[in-house]
Amino acid sequence: MEILREILNKFNIVHAPFILDQVNVPESDIALIEGCVLDGNQAQVEYLKSIRERTKKVIALGTCAAFGGIASLSPGKQADPVDRFIEIDGFVPGCPPPPGLLNDSAIRLMEGKRIVLSDRNLCSSCELRAENMNEFTRPIDAITPGTTNPVAKQATCFLKDGILCMGPVTREGCEARCIKKGVPCEGCMGPPSQEYTSNVVNFFSMLPLSAELRDYTGMVFRFGRPRIRRETKQ
Amino acid sequence: MDIYEVLSHPIRRKLLLILEREGYLKHSELMDKLAIDKTGILNFHLKQLDELVSKETKTKAYCLSEMGKAVIRIIDLNERLLKGEELPAEVNKKGEISRVGVITCNCTGEVSDCLDINALDAYARKITGVVSTRVLDNLCQEKYLKSLHQWCRDNFINKLVIAACSPKTHQHVFEAMFDGVVDRPNIEIVNIREQCAWVHRDDSYRDATLKKAEILIEAGAARVGLQRAIKVKTVQVEKSCAVIGGGIAGMTLALSLARAGMQVHLIDKAPTLGGMAARWNKIQGMADCSICFISEMIGEIKKQKSITIHTNTKVDNISGEIGNFTLDLTREPRFVDVDRCTGCGRCTHICKVEKPDQYEYGLAKRKLIYIPFSHAYPFAATIDKEDLETCKACRICERACINKAIALDQEPEKLRLKVGAKVIAIGAELHGDLASFHHDPSNDVVTAPEFERILSSDGPTGGELLRLSNDEPPKAVAYIQGIGPRSASGLDGVNQSLDKLLARKYEAAVKEQVPKASFKTFPARTAKVEVGGGEKRVVDSSAKAYKADLIILGTEVVPNPDLKDLRKKFDFTLDDHGFMGEETLSSGIFGVGAVLGPRSYNEVVFGANKVALDVIALLSRETLVSDYTGAENNQDKCGLCGLCARSCPYNAIVLTSDRVVVDKFKCKSCGTCASVCPTGAMELNVDSTDKIRKSIEVMAKLKESPKILAFCCRSCGYAAADDAGLKRLLYSPSVLIIRVPCSGRVDSNFLVAALEAGFDGVMVIGCKQDACRYIDGFYKAKQKVRLLQQVLGEDGAGRIMIESMSAVEGNKFAEVVTGFYNKLKEGTKH
Amino acid sequence: MNSNVDLCTRIEGHASIEYIVSKNELMAVNFKTDVFRGFEGILRGKHYLDAPRIASRICGLCHASQAIASTRAIEAMLGVQPSASARAMRAVLMCGELVKSHVMHFYFQGFPDISAVLHDKPLGLEELVRNNPEFTQSMFELIKLGKDVCEAFGGREIHAISPAVGGKSFTVFPKEINQTRKHLEKIQEISRPVLDDLLEDFHNASPAEDFAFKNVAFLALANEPGVDGIYRQDGKIAIELPSGSVRRIAPDGFKELVWTEEGLRGYETSLDESIGLLVGPMARARLGALEVDDHELKDAVARAWSKWKDNMLFNYALQLVDVHESASMALEILSSLSGETARDQTIPDTPPNPAGTGIVEAPRGTLIHHYASGEDNRLGEVDLYIPTRINIPLIDRMLTTRCRALADKGLAMDEIKRRAAMIVRTFDPCISCATHLVTHRP
After folding, report:
1. For residues B748 and B802, what is the distance between their CA atoms, to the nearest angstrom?
2. Can you tell me the distance from the alpha carbon of C180 to that of A164, in angstroms, rounded to the nearest whole number?
3. Any chain A CB within 8 A of the CB of C9?
4. B119 in contact with A at a CB cutoff of 8 Å?
5. For burial by CB atoms within 10 Å, which of B287, B550, C70, C353 has the most?
């Protein structure tokens, strides 16, 4: 919020449906876009294109705009990120985007620089990471602590404790807020590289997942789904 | 013009470099800068440089032409790479220029029978990044070699696409043909014969076959364009070897090396050479007493001038690489000047303070200043560091020493060695839970090493086999074998033949001195010792009790605790029991003796000789060239999650607290690690993710429907596809193949990316499950594919398939591919 | 017949207002949302311990209410009771969420509209920021305080992670509790003078005709008079009919009202078709859930309320009252919060109940999650009842009636549209929440 004030001092907000009456998209320097496009909704795609045409820098803000987001979990519906329709100049992932990263990115944008994201995964800044953390053998059968481990504070890597944590396949940058609070990462920062679902599939293929979790798609399409549906010929 | 010939003269190279730096220079300025005093000389060189330098007509200043600039970049880069310099990342991106040449081989008409080869060449010429193309009738016949080299040089071609037969057939021939002209990783073979022309020999396929060949070449050009320079490093070999550990293994090896004329540094942290065997009575299977044998060996070592001995010395740090290591050592003080000490023993005699003798396992006592044993080397007194304060308060020995050898103020000393190879020979330890077996030497329950001391002629009983409790010979001896962590956890011993050897040795020792005494061996796993009522019993698995008046506790050989510490400095791996894993020649690090696990004397000597041969082979080379193409970890991207280490079939990847270390000598370049790395930090040098992704992108341009992309593993899937060609089987030209080292290399993302890019179906074809060249790569690929099929459900399950086939199953390949094609065709019709 | 669709600005999410014109006559005006996100479909088949985290993503404004309603539905299904400290933690978290949500709506949407209606001075964002620096400063401060409370008690500022089935996923430490106490006091301190001025303005103005409603039933989760309970978590579903009579239904009997999905047009209930159903601060105040402690403030509210009680514009004033009073109630709860350890509940392996209902009062009104249990610890059928969607039939009715009246008066279409948008905004519609449905398509 402080940063919004800063932005108001330096920039004119020319288009913001939430706070402005303006309906048409005017020319601007920076556009921040939130949310995904559902089922290729034509009106939304047109809207995006009109923004792209009139804007120097388009930034996808939040995991929905960057990867498709939570709506990807919807069966039979396609949630597409903004960059499947228009070219973008950067994105700030996170559901919600971490305040630190948001501030940094806003400052960089105001200075005319590119947004910088870490290329690493969350493990690199996780306080629960241990030297031999890859050597876990216990079956992973829980998606939240508390069901099987009524402990006060998480002391070891969740994966070692049999609790699914998406940290290894999630981009660093959220300061591990959830993990610090004893809640495993659910992957809202998205993959550090490549596409969302295949990234998770690679990970799951290597985990000793319980049968129950193995066929649970709630994590595989958590914040993204590949657009692979085939156009069937008439 | 031959660019390399032009640049062979240093003045011309300098001239180009000066122009690159300064931009524009007049004739006179050039003469100044080059320190040339005659106009003619400069003119001559300028003429030789020809098109590389141009002259501005107005200012009459010289500058680099566009071609000259390109040459500077190539030359500069090549030289720096040859020197082994690490180029900063941005140079690699911006500075590296790709000039791709395409050679299409017609294979004496085999290719042109099926497609229009001139049209193919015309297409190749238009591909972005391609600078020149050639069509040849028969590349494998080397008659064009000279003209091809010239063609490469003339066009500054540093990357090459060869569209010809399968890489299985002639890859090495082609690569060798261009040695010194184009680097091997920069040659991309595109298979337009076995996997294109031969399998689509049907008139109805003719146009589609040409389209496929075009796409294949385009993908090849795109791939090779992304190939990064591979660092080639030349190392001058240091002609010496460090042997860490002065026990029987280390000494044997040092002697072998010294006799072959090698310089050897023998390093031990103890004040004397000899190691554990020096304390034994006899070495298994030898009649000689151990100390005599060791002392003879030490004598032999003393004679060898090429062996430098460093006792009381530990390794602090190690750097460098195979062929050229730097070792930083610390020599701890022994508080006696070895050069002055004559070993007369006055000091030990006069010393008034006693402590348990570690050499005697505490069975006897010794003075604070002592000579470790009668044949120790160096034969000089020493004081333990822990006793220094006591000694400083007394100093009686200092006054007694007539040679003024006592030096209580000695400081640690730092040493630095340069060696070409290093051998770890620090031995092992004996360890087990002795308390539960009622260990008590005063009650005649002794450990095996203590028993060795009792037998030893310089031991507490003067070599007579007597019970320590009453100085009488034993009547019934029990030997419990294998007390330790492995048997406690239900595992078998690591070296059973050694166990048998030891049992025989102890039985013989007992029978020799007390022929009437009985001797029985028990495995520790089932045996129990009971003490009480003035007698001792060993109870075996069938609950039978055996009365014994002397019990020997044989503990297990466990890894030396120093090994873990050394591992942080040296790059080597540990096996399941925590012993050092056996290394190959290429790593430059070797292990001998019990550091590799329990070993009998014969095994130690055999191993030492084998390692000696390896070391000699390594050190007799003048230089080593490394061109590593396996997995590498980019620390800037690595988040240390360890998934790569989890996936590696060879345990070549070690996760430490702050980095991921790839053992370059264990890595077999299968790429399984790269396929699961979530950040892209783990990457193969040649079969890199960006190259494969680029191939997918380019190949998706093929306008056929349905189109299929198959990822085939190098050893089986790809070979099966070749086999289909050799058998001239037919399948649709809308099947494209990407070669991967192993099916384990296939990242789910490749499959998803292919589907997203517009392929109707994707396949992974690997080895038969238990025949996977990379142990379990195929299994890992299957895990991924299964999961992907399951989560994608009806959108994807039917469009992804995984198959295994052997290299000769061309029929199966054609069948499977055609079946898949037909199924997808059904799917698109609706 | 043709329709003219206008993008509706200054609301949360993407929606529009549709004007149906036949033979040059304005026939109907509808509030229209056209994108379905389908959270029922998303939640169906999900692991029941995973559901609250997903439900929280329904909305960026009332994320905590969604997560808590979901948590409570699952708790009901599993037959577990959250501990007192977990319930207290949820209450404080919901207070933070309410402050942020209401203040943002009030500042960016309400204040410019109030200024236009009561003082005939329309305000753009520029003027709002530049001409009222102190007011802007205090509003931003409030939003930040609300966010900070969410962060301390939710684990992060949006999409709270603290609500866990059976309790809470972490413990709030005394340091954060003290900090939050200061934040809540500050919220009261800042909101009070703004609220006083606002109530004064309302008191001095006469109710604007555009926002008047008739024949409305009010619905809220409220405690019966004399019964204690946590505001917005406890109580029964209370409905005040236009006649003034109040019906009270136990939470799990909510289906007595018979809710049927009517596509995107809201729900059909067992109430008479001519009655519009309203949820939100207005309904909470009406049903006594939202009470004012302070005598002076109580009187001021009552004075303005007597003039404006059938007028939606007053919703803005009640939002600020809600902010002020929520902070006061959260402060009370904070003092009872003890430092129990986290994750204190054992959760049964299989749910004993076939279904569970979780009801909370979200900032925008009554929010109901109803889950049936499925196989393998997964959710079966999922029904979500979202405040904005409950209000939609009433919004449509008010829009049509009012716009037609304005058209009869001969007002220009642009002016009608401007006023229609203002009517919609008084309801504080939240589109991300409202577009949850997947089963019907228009």
Report:
1. 12
2. 32
3. yes
4. no
5. C70
For B777, half-sphere exposure in the C-beta direction (CA atoms, 13 angstrom radius) is 34
**Strands (DSSP E) found in B205-286:** 233-236, 240-244, 263-267
- CA distance to partner chain A, nearest, from residue B789 (Å): 10
Residue B63's DSSP bridge partners are B54
Select the residue of A133, A201, A234 nearest B748 (Cβ to Cβ). A201
CATH fold for domain B3-94? Arc Repressor Mutant, subunit A (1.10.10)
Q: Residue holding tokens 């002016």?
A: C415
For residues A122 and A99, state if they share a domain: no
Q: Do C169 and A183 touch (CB under 8 A)?
A: yes
Q: Is residue A23 part of a domain?
A: yes
pLDDT, tens only, B693-746:
999 999 999 998 899 999 999 989 999 999 999 999 999 999 999 999 999 999
CB-CB under 8 Å, A202 with B784: yes
- CB within 8 Å of chain A, chain C residues 87-146: 108-109, 124-126, 129, 140, 143-144
pLDDT tens digits, one per residue of C13-67: 677 888 988 888 888 898 887 666 678 889 999 998 899 999 999 888 899 999 9
Q: Is the ipTM of this complex over 0.90?
A: yes
The partner residues of C385 in beta bridges, in order of sequence, read C368
Among A110, A131, A155, identify where a domain stops. A110
Q: Inter-chain contact C125–A75, Cβ cutoff 8 Å?
A: no
Question: Is the model more confident about C123 or about B816?
Answer: B816
As assigned by CATH, the class of the B240-331+420-427+560-624 domain is alpha beta
Domain assignment present for residue A233? The answer is: no
Does the pLDDT of residue B475 top 60, yes or no?
yes
Q: Is B787 on the interface with A (CB under 8 A)?
A: yes
Give the model confidence (pLDDT) of B132-160 as tens digits: 999 999 998 878 888 899 888 777 788 99
Residue B85 DSSP SS3:
coil
SS3 B712: strand
Cβ–Cβ below 8 Å for C35 and A41: yes
Give B513-571 pLDDT, tens digit per residue: 899 999 999 888 888 888 888 888 998 888 888 899 999 998 888 888 888 777 666 66
- Which residue type is seen at A55? T
Which three-class secondary structure state does DSSP give residue B414?
strand
Q: Which of A206, A217, A233 faces B646 most closely, judged by CB atoms?
A: A206
pLDDT tens, B226-277?
Answer: 887 776 667 788 899 999 999 999 999 999 999 988 899 999 999 999 888 8
Q: Is residue C10 within 8 Å of residue C421, measured between CB atoms?
A: yes
Tokens matching residue B103: 């050679």
Q: Chain A contacts of B788, Cβ < 8 Å?
A: 198, 201
Domain that holds residue A68: 2-110
* Contact list, A181 vs chain C (CB under 8 Å): 155, 161-162, 169-170
Chosen domain end from A110, A142, A168: A110
Q: Which residues of A touch B646 (CB under 8 A)?
A: 134-135, 206
Q: Does position B476 have pLDDT exceeding 70, yes or no?
A: yes
Measure the CA–CA gap between A130 and C89, rounded to whole angstroms.
32
Q: Please provide the CATH number assigned to the domain covering B687-830.
A: 3.40.50
pLDDT tens digits, residue range A90-107? 999 999 999 999 889 988
pLDDT of A9 reads: 63
CATH number at residue A62: 3.40.50.700
Same domain, A206 and A127: yes
C-alpha to C-alpha distance for B444 and B479, rounded to whole angstroms: 12
pLDDT of residue A42: 86
For C299, the enclosing helix (H) or strand (E) is: helix C295-308
**Mean pLDDT across B391-420:** 91
Q: What are the boundaries of each domain within chain B? A: 3-94, 240-331+420-427+560-624, 346-411, 431-557, 630-668, 687-830
Q: Is residue A230 part of a domain?
A: no
State chain B's mean pLDDT as an integer.
Answer: 86
